[in-house]
Specification:
single chain; about 500 residues; alpha/beta; 4-stranded antiparallel β-sheet; about 35% helix
Length: about 500
């Protein structure tokens, strides 16, 4: 609160990736992960390092001492994560103390006290009053859930003390009066359905920037203590830091400068992306303004809340799941565990929790169309690598001795417009397209066969006439098509004559 009083608090700061390591991939390269193939969690896909420069390297070239003695984990292969920093580890947690006398510095101080893991474990030592916790509307009001909230509130308070300690260290070193301080998280909250997910609780992040009085010309508003409504995406940050330092900014950087003498026009939209998180597959794209958000679920057959081992370590998550399996959830509290619609649209001003899907509301169709158009345009601009399943695109890149970054920029190897059209058709769930999907199942491109099988899967019982094709597809050379064909056969033959898993519960 004190830092915000002395600085500027941004009300529309958004993470692009909603989870830690892909987010850091965005930061270190200044590029959207979907543009260079680094979006799946723990993927370590390589990028052309001779083309894509890390921002600490560029700050060093501008004369800055750079330090990050804690978390790196950039989700990128082909280079050691810590190599780009002047000081990347040791006993000194405040890296600016390792610079030459008088040298300008860029220092990252990572505070792990509010990490997701701090919501794990016993609730016996909770200090906050669980009864005073305000729950997201999608969480059922259970004692164990309230205790998990309280446990994490304790963790946030511990984090706040570390922020104070960092500021005190700057003051002790005589640097507070001439240092720009940036405070932000690396994704949204950590309770189930926040981190990893593109809903507001997963991507809306704190950002406070405090400028010394000697740098009033950099103020983004009239005076400290005020808010800034400009949209800031995480991809904007490295480009902005380079600009403030007077460093070279390569053409590969995809963000927008939001501070300083070279401030660029504010973006109208924020783009978010979600794919595999740890061991669970998913594929979602988000395009939003400060108020409205459009979500496109490319894997709507999978519930958002399919079991993920790390997420289930917090007592909140298994308790929530069990409550659902017992049939005690309602339309809002149970949706996390059910398959999704292909599209979602939310008014974040009235519904920050994103529980009232307005995709069919007549009064919002103009905005929905605008965001859908903006999303497709951005996907084409960035060469969105996610229109093939993860392992499929990895195989195709390897077969051609290319990185994913290079492969998706070759239209013969990756016809993105064709894939976007195919995905759109599959996600419509219109049985009038059944004949098209059947025809696509013999296409030479396994990517087209993939979207055909997704279309058949989403048609479910309306795809029964394709069962002979699905059985032949069990021998398809593509692993992904084979697996999806087997599941689709189960859906068309068995699911509609058997009780649901929840009923069998």
């Amino acid at each position: 609160d004190q830092l915000a009083t002395e600085g500027f608090r941004y009300t529309n700061c958004f993470d692009n990736a909603a989870v830690c390591a892909p987010t850091r991939s965005v930061w270190i390269t200044g590029m959207y992960g979907i543009s260079n193939g680094t979006q799946p969690m723990r993927s370590r896909n390589e990028i052309p390092h001779d083309t894509i420069k890390y921002y600490p390297d560029l700050l060093k070239q501008a004369g800055y001492h750079t330090s990050n003695p804690s978390k790196t984990d950039y989700n990128i292969g082909g280079r050691e994560d810590k190599e780009c920093w002047d000081y990347s580890g040791g006993k000194e947690q405040y890296g600016w103390r390792m610079r030459k006398p008088g040298q300008p510095f860029f220092a990252i101080v990572n505070i792990g006290d509010s990490h997701e893991s701090r919501a794990h474990g016993s609730h016996d030592d909770v200090k906050k009053d669980p009864a005073k916790m305000t729950l997201f509307s999608y969480h059922p009001d259970l004692p164990v859930i309230r205790k998990t909230y309280a446990k994490y509130a304790d963790a946030v308070e511990n984090m706040d003390r570390k922020v104070q300690a960092t500021i005190d260290a700057l003051k002790a070193d005589g640097l507070y009066k001439n240092t720009i301080i940036v405070y932000n998280s690396d994704h949204g909250g950590v309770m189930a359905r926040s981190k990893r997910f593109l809903y507001s609780s997963g991507v809306h992040c704190p950002l406070v920037i405090r400028f010394p009085k000697s740098m009033k010309h950099l103020y983004p508003g009239d005076k400290p203590g005020t808010t800034v409504d400009r949209i800031v995406s995480f991809v904007d940050m490295p480009k902005t830091w380079l600009s403030l330092a007077g460093a070279i900014i390569p053409d590969t950087y995809q963000g927008t400068i939001f501070l300083g003498d070279y401030t660029e026009t504010a973006p109208k939209y924020h783009l978010g992306f979600r794919e595999r998180a740890d061991e669970r597959l998913d594929h979602v794209r988000l395009m939003r303004t400060g108020r409205y958000s459009y979500h496109k679920n490319y894997f709507p057959f999978a519930p958002a809340g399919h079991h993920l081992a790390y997420l289930w370590k917090a007592q909140l998550t298994p308790a929530w799941e069990q409550h659902h399996l017992e049939g005690k959830t309602n339309e809002i509290t149970g949706r996390f565990f059910e398959p999704r619609l292909s599209e979602e649209f939310y008014d974040n001003q009235s519904d920050f929790d994103n529980v009232h899907n307005l995709i069919g509301a007549p009064k919002h169709q103009k905005m929905i169309a605008e965001l859908k158009t903006a999303l497709r345009k951005k996907q084409l601009e960035l060469h969105d690598s996610g229109l093939l399943p993860e392992k499929m695109r990895e195989r195709r890149a390897a077969e051609n001795n290319l990185t994913i970054y290079e492969m998706v920029r070759n239209e013969e190897l990756y016809p993105l417009e064709t894939y976007l059209d195919a995905a759109d058709l599959a996600l419509k769930r219109d049985k009038a397209n059944l004949g098209t999907f059947k025809k696509w199942m013999t296409n030479d491109d396994e990517g087209i066969r993939w979207w055909a099988i997704v279309g058949l899967n989403l048609l479910a019982k309306d795809a029964r006439s394709a069962n002979a094709i699905l059985k032949r597809a069990l021998q398809d050379e593509s692993h992904e098509v084979r697996m999806m064909s087997a599941w689709t056969l189960i859906k068309t033959c068995l699911l509609y004559t058997s009780p649901s898993p929840r009923d069998r519960g």
